[in-house]
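Session log. Operator J.P. requested a structure for one protein chain; no other inputs attached. Running the standard single-chain path with token output.
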Amino acid sequence: MKKHLIKIYNFVKYHLVKAEFFFDFENKHKIKEFKNRHLGEKCFIIGNGPSLKVEDLDKLQNQITFSCNMIYNTLSETKWRPYYYFVHDPKYVQEFSEDIQKVPCKNKFIGYYVDTKTQVKSKFKTKKNQLHYYIDKKTFSNKISKNFSKDVSKIVYSSGSVSYGMLQFAVYMGFSEIYLIGFDHTFSNQIKDGKLEKRDTKDHFSNYNVIPGNIVDVDLITQGFINANNFAKKNNIKIMNATRGGELEIFQRIDLNDVLK
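Structure written below.
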């Protein structure tokens, strides 16, 4: 009975937060301004895997890049600066809000869902270059979403990683070529094929400075990449993996240097 009531409570809370975002017309209008802003262009989505090197970032100085989380720890070592910056993980929103506020970028996108709305709205006010987006994360359901958003001003679907949100934004902005780098897709503590695995590997690039130990649901993240790949193929969008090594084989591989020729 108690579990049933909790589920109903979470269901109602989810829809109230979703409705609140729906009626935030000013913020939604600002996001709509990004629709097809980069029609037919190429971009690079930067993951924070251990294969990422500062020299990779140096090569991307003049490119349109999507980056996230603690990528700012590399900024003292490179002239590269984020173009679009994303964050929605509760840990970063809560513990590193001051650092995130200082990230130099063209535009900053702060995502929230039902359990993080209060934190995001109190720590990150909407500004000209800082916007909120709504993440469809249902705490009352165990189903893995196979949806990919066609309109990020209304909803961004969740799949265990901010990278899925960045992919949905990149498509919304009209990019026809999307290259991934730093997506190793393997973690020291991970759920893969429904089983907990412990691996002797680093989770992030050398300057990430986050205490290890988080359990990452690779199955959930994988489903997001499958969703993105399926959507891209149906809509004549190219998503390719320029990561050095790693275990992400959903997308066709390509060498970063070949892309930048």
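Operator note: The mean pLDDT is 91.
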